[in-house]
TrEMBL record:
Keyword Isomerase applies: yes
Listed PROSITE patterns: VOC
Cited PANTHER family: METHYLMALONYL-COA EPIMERASE, METHYLMALONYL-COA EPIMERASE, MITOCHONDRIAL
Superkingdom field: Bacteria
Name the UniProt record assigns to this protein: Methylmalonyl-CoA epimerase
Species this protein is from: Mesonia profundi
Pfam families (alphabetical): Glyoxalase_4
GO MF terms held by the record: methylmalonyl-CoA epimerase activity
Signal peptide, first to last residue: none
């Protein structure tokens, strides 16, 4: 793992959360993006070298909507940047982690992503992500 890339926070109302985090961090979101395939709209805030990603559901059957219904608002995942996501998936599987996405998928913020099941990492949903080279 190269670094903590971002912390994902599930929220009920993205616009309200954007206002809250703008006040908290002293800066506005630098980017909003919808990932239609996942039923989520995201806002990204840069703080130092790290980012906060706010996640709001766009439909009731999305993973974020299900998370919010089950657990309420709060930390959804921690994302780590990697330089070779396919290789990292192989290494993590070999080390006994349950990888939810054997093939990386397109995520927000120009990233390819894969997730580890929380039961593999003491209750924390872990995302690994790699920047898509342009």
């Amino acid at each position: 793992m190269d670094k903590i890339e971002h912390i994902g926070i599930a929220v009920n109302n993205l616009e309200e959360a954007n206002a809250t985090y703008k006040k908290l961090l002293g800066t506005a979101a630098y980017k909003q993006e919808e990932v239609e395939s996942e039923g989520v709209k995201t806002s990204f805030f840069k703080i130092g070298e790290s980012k906060i990603e706010l996640l709001g559901a766009t439909r009731e059957d999305s993973p974020i909507a299900k998370f919010l219904k089950k657990k309420g608002e709060g930390i959804h995942h921690i994302a780590f940047a990697v330089s070779d996501i396919e290789q990292k998936i192989k290494e993590l599987e070999a080390d006994g982690f349950e990888v939810l996405n054997k093939t990386p998928k397109k995520g927000a913020d120009n990233k390819r992503v894969a997730f580890l099941h929380p039961k593999s990492s003491h209750g924390v949903l872990v995302e690994i992500c790699q920047e898509i080279k342009k």
